[in-house]
Amino acid sequence: ATRRSPTPEQRAAIEARARNVLLEAGAGSGKTGVMVERYCRLVVDEGVSPDAVLAFTFTDKAAAELRARVRAELSRRAAGSDAKAVRAAAFLSTIGGAWITTIHGFCNRLLAAHPVAAGVDPGFRVLDQPEAERAAREAFDSALTEFLAGAEPAREETVAAYDLEGLRAVVVATHDELRSRGVADPALPDPPASDPAEALAATIEAAGECLEELKEGDARRLPLEEALARLTEPGPPPTLAELEALRPGGKAKPLAPFREALEAAIARTAEVGEGGIAYRHLADLLRLYTAAFEAAKERRAGIDFEDLQILAARLLERAEIGQAYRGRFSHLLVDEFQDTNRLQLRLIEALQGPKTQLVVVGDELQSIYSFRHADLEVFRRRREQVDADPAAELMELSGNFRSRPEVIAAFNLFGATLLGPAYRPLRVGAPPAEPAPRGRGPAVELHLTARDGWDGEGIELEPAIDGRTPLNCLAEARTLAARLRELHEAGVERGAMVVLLRAFTHLDAYEDSLARAGLRPYVVGGRGYWSQQQVADVTALLLTIANPLDDEALFGALASPACAVAPDTLWLLRAAAGRRRHVWPALEALALGEGADLGRRTEPRPAPSEQPPPAPEETAETADRGLAAPERLDDIPAGERELLTEFATQLVGLRARAPRLSLSGLIESAVTETGYDLATLLRPAGEARLANVRKLSRLAAAYESREGRDLRGLLDFLAARAESDTEAQAATAAEGHDGVRIMTVHNAKGLEFEVVAVPDLSRGLLSGGRRPVLALGREQPPRIGLQWRRLGRPSVNLYDYGDLIEAGEARDSEEGLRLFHVAATRARERLILSGVVKPEAPKEMKPGTAVVERLVEALGVPRPTAETAEAETADPAASDGAPGGPAAGDHSRTATPDPSKPIEVPVPPAEPRPGLDETFPASVIEVRLNESSPERAAELRGLHLDAAADRPLGTGTPPLVERKPPIVPSRPLSYTAISAFEECGYRFYMERVLGLPAAVTAPTRESPGGPVGAGDEGPSAREERSARGAAVHALLEWSQANGWAMPSAELARRHALAAGLDLGRSGSPGQQRAAAGGGADPAAEELLGPVRDWLGSALREEIAAGRARAEVPILLRARGTVLRGSIDLLVEREGAPPLVVDYKTDRLRDEDPAERAAHYEIQRSIYALAAAESLGADEVEVAYVFLERADAPSRTILTRAEMDAGQARIDAAVEAISAGAFSSAPEPDRTWDLCRGCPALGRLCSGPPAEPAVDFDPVRAG
Predict the structure, then answer these.
(1) For residue 100, what is the enclosing H or E element?
(2) What is the CA radius of gyration of the chain?
């Protein structure tokens, strides 16, 4: 791209020389370019050493971008031959070590250089967020135990009143907030002195004044007279209970002064009594938690992110170290200054020496991170200081180079309307490249959806969404998808459009609607993973395994696809159990009554320390005794009884095996044995849904690697993560995916898109949580406020709670409006806004009033309504301009508008930036009304496209084998199970039916039979071999998704960890010594070698022209059961059969790949049948790539006749399994490769007739 010369505003900022500079840089104003130019001017033009320039950015990504752009600019400047070019070229080689970093990165570097002075271990590590959260939970549990150790009733009552998790949230949030302010040892301040006597005197005075305002005989005088009589009688002052009894009923306005004074008296009385005790309890618990959290981090030999900053600030405030760094840096550049807090300001000020120039860059309107403890007051105070200092410079970048003029004009209209005087108008940075954006209509649109009527008669939207999502939200999402589809048909690429949401609460409505419109939605990061139904389902299943008496979890598991019983069945179970009784005994009684053997397990019971103690063996009769209404079980339909019995049996088995399974293995067993995975795959977007389950399994593996095999600990950890809900949904498409992205506004900050849609603007600005129990002011020391909660009685607001909450809500409201501004300013060419609108205008604009309600009132546009008979026959004379009728140009009071005709709202033009001699015409915002009616619903239903017809080759939904009627999974099998049955039915019976463990046997010539269970490969070796294979497959999948790029060693380590393989402890001793010596990483190379060989193979080059997809799930019906699996790589090719590529990590040991591939005939048939049916192909090619010999794949093209023969062979095997025909392999076929490790060997079967070869291969054993 052509390099643009700096504008006058930018040039002034680049060359500013004051000691203190604050640059207010609006959205899209080129602030990063200014920082790059300023940095390069310092080091190249002015000869400042790069080691004397410290640049702070907000994120690691921003730091990497700034460093890359500095490198590019230095490369451009190095192209000449003068002294400056030579200097630029010299700096290029050192830019990697430049001080361009985040504040956390700088602090880490500082502590690493001075660990002893900082008081940390020289080998310290920084705990990542999940591990820090686990340490915090552990610390709170420890603190609570100590807090309750004295068995004081008052303390126990405090804990009960706030409940355990509520108390945890209060203590942890207060601790984090105080530490973000730089308090190393957080503690609550002493409460202010309270004077109940003064408050009682004020109450008496208020009661008297209210009486004076009321006439004699007014019934409202009675409570005032009774209050005065009690408050003025001699003797001790009234107790708290007596004061509360004086509260007048109702909300009569004449009594408001008395009511307010009485509440103050109640609060003051509580503060010197039980309420003050509760506050001191919270202070004690915070103190205990602080100490326990420090101990938990010390046990992990780590520090958290706040420790980094606090310790670094302490270091810099020490004379000798601080002076050295203040002398070192002559220039400080701080980006995103509006997102800093007091602690970070303290760090920055500690780095500024007497001659150090400090330039801070920020934009108040983009301050949206208060939940990360960003403090906008830091920015505002700094701006006031700079403005008041004649020697400082307050500068501005107002030219927006991102958006076209009409869009900028809309920004300014919205900003002035919503943000008032705080809004600084943006100016046009450059003329638009095209006279109009692609697609029809104005560049800015507002879509208003009626709140009511979408559940009316004849209105059907075909919801395929979460039941919590209202139908009006679905109608809004359908409307938005229809508009984006129009733009796509007009030539706008799907990948150029984004939907920005404040929260993912109703994500399902937008995903479903965009998918129906053929727009291939892709959820990028942000909140949402923990709100996914699959995560909730599997978590409920794990909770039930840990404790079947957890009724909420049990009901969740029973309602999920793991059991899938009807709501009526759940009601009958509850009725049978009885109120306030556990439901599991009812389920157990039903299963026993159906003949299930829940108590006669062959496996040993789990240890009491690991699982709840198992119940004694019961019969249906004994189980019934504890039920309130056992006859209700008989009302459950037979089909539902069968589902419940099967689930109970599976649950008992899972509970028995849980202590012996890894956490990820337990999740895999739970979803597989209950059929949850199959049911999930069969649903729309099944691959995406199952990806969330796989991600949960990876999280469990990572947890176990750090914390050990602790199911209850994992469940507590998952609960904490769900509470914060900051995890991204599992990705199922590459970043280059041609589809409409769905993101949170926070994740989109710093990005830009051609078309930006911002829906769900009806969300209240204060929605998302309850009021905090404990409030802290921003003073030092802070004011405090406490909502004192009591068991069975109303709460009381103590100290300054009301004022602090009001101030906090005002700040939250302002931030919500700034969040809307950030979302809107991501748009380059088009901005589409939408929201659900109430039928009537709000009486007043409160802090929580939604953005769309504010816009409707400010723009004077009509409100959409539900279709009614009254609306159709409305009197047109009601809006004829008579007195009381509409004002001129006021759209909101016109007669019922035609929703098919858009309304245009005029928008004044945006001004050009300084130095741009251009004028721009006025524009309009197009407003469209989306009113509920059968006709409109039919239009929105018509949006459903044939996804297969719209899908280019190689894209879209994975080729699940779909049949009508749908497959009903029954006793699912894998293709490896079919192969195992064909080789030896008896071994299949021993291992897969009876579940006996394999016995790895390595016979010798001296003892051909070999000792049972002996051998070179035990379970741990098999698990490691399996984990290595999984890691290699994951790396190959990553490579395909990233354009066949070569993975890094670090990525190999991460995938190994996710697969349950610790490369740090694997590999030979020599490999470990080599890695420790700093050389190449042999353990990682063992995983990367097969990937490298595949990437260099001829077959990989051949498939480059086709459309490839990795890890494609398959389901295939065979004689009443379902075969499941996945295809490593499915390639669709023009003019050639589909190609299935299967990676194999087998060791060939000089065997020909084609000979080894012959062992996989069943698998090859299943692959071919699944691909053929899904893609409608008559031929399918299957290639087995043994990664040890990636250059010699075994390739076979299967014709329709060969696939039919394979189907017949599969059907015959399934029929034999169903019939119980488990015969052993004929003696001539019994080889040591087949029999080694069989549970029957040496016990029930003689095994091979001859001794094995001496070169025992543990890789192929088992």
Answers:
(1) strand 99-102
(2) 35
- CA separation for the pair 252, 45 (Å, rounded): 74
Q: CA-CA distance, 974 to 158, in Å (whole number)?
A: 55
- Side-chain half-sphere exposure of 110, counting CA atoms within 13 A: 29
Query: What are the beta bridge partners of residue 1060?
Result: none
Q: Which residues pair with 884 in a beta bridge?
A: none
Query: What's the CATH number where 1172 sits?
Result: 3.90.320.10
Residue 1149 lies in a domain: yes
Predicted confidence band of residue 568 (pLDDT cuts 50, 70, 90): confident
pLDDT digits (tens, 9 = 90+) for 646-655: 999 999 999 8
CA–CA distance, 485 with 961 (Å, rounded to integer): 28
Helix (H) or strand (E) holding 24: strand 20-25
CATH number, domain of 725, equals: 1.10.486.10
Give strand ranges (E) for 727-783.
741-744, 753-758, 774-776
1238 in Cβ contact with 996 (< 8 Å): no
Give the type of residue at 465: I
Confidence of residue 625 (pLDDT cuts 50, 70, 90): low
pLDDT at 970: 38
Q: Are strands 827-837 and 753-758 parallel, antiparallel or unpaired?
A: parallel
Tokens standing for residue 72: 């590019």
Structural domain includes residue 707: yes
Q: CA of 449: how far to CAs of 169, 411, 854, in Å?
A: 37, 22, 15
- Is there a contact between 322 and 316 (Cβ–Cβ < 8 Å)? yes
Q: Please state the three-class secondary structure of 107-157 as a single string.
A: HHHHHHHCHHHHCCCCCCEECCHHHHHHHHHHHHHHHHHHHCCCCCHHHHH
Quote the strand ranges of 419-487, DSSP E: 427-428, 444-450
Q: Inter-axis angle of helices 711-724 and 129-147, to 10 degrees?
A: 110
Most confident of the following: 237-251, 278-292, 309-323? 278-292
| 1104-1122: burial string, b at 16+ Cβ within 10 Å, e else | eebebbbbbbbbbbbeebb
Is residue 1224 within 8 Å of residue 1188, measured between CB atoms? no
Helix (H) or strand (E) holding 309: helix 305-317
Does residue 1124 belong to any structural domain of this protein?
yes
Residues near 116 by beta carbon (within 8 Å), at least 6 away in sequence: 122
Residue 847 lies in a domain: no
Query: 334 - beta bridge partners?
Result: 56, 360
Q: Which domain-ending residue is among 378, 397, 416?
A: 397
How many domains are there within the chain?
3
Confidence of residue 944 (pLDDT cuts 50, 70, 90): low
| Number of residues written out for the chain | 1262
Q: Please provide the distance, in angstroms rounded to a whole number, between the alpha carbons at the two ends of the chain.
A: 60
Give this prediction's pTM.
0.68
Decide which of 397, 431, 459 is a domain's last residue: 397
For the chain, the farthest-separated pair of C-alpha atoms sits apart, in whole angstroms, at 116
Q: Among 222-236, 591-605, 910-924, 977-991, whose mean pLDDT is lowest?
A: 591-605
86: domain CATH number is 3.40.50.300
Joined together, the tokens standing for residue 624 give: 């019934």
Domain carrying residue 342: 8-120+307-397
Burial class (CB in 10 A: 0-12, 13-18, 19+), 725: middle
Which neighbouring-strand residues pair with 760?
none
Bridge partners, 1245 (sequence order): 1241
Name the token pair of 120.
């940390």
CA distance 1025 to 1022: 5
User: Strand, helix or coil at 795?
Assistant: strand
Strand order in the sheet with 53-57: 99-102, 53-57, 331-334, 357-362, 20-25, 393-397
Pull the structure tokens for residue 522.
């892709």
Residue type, 651: L
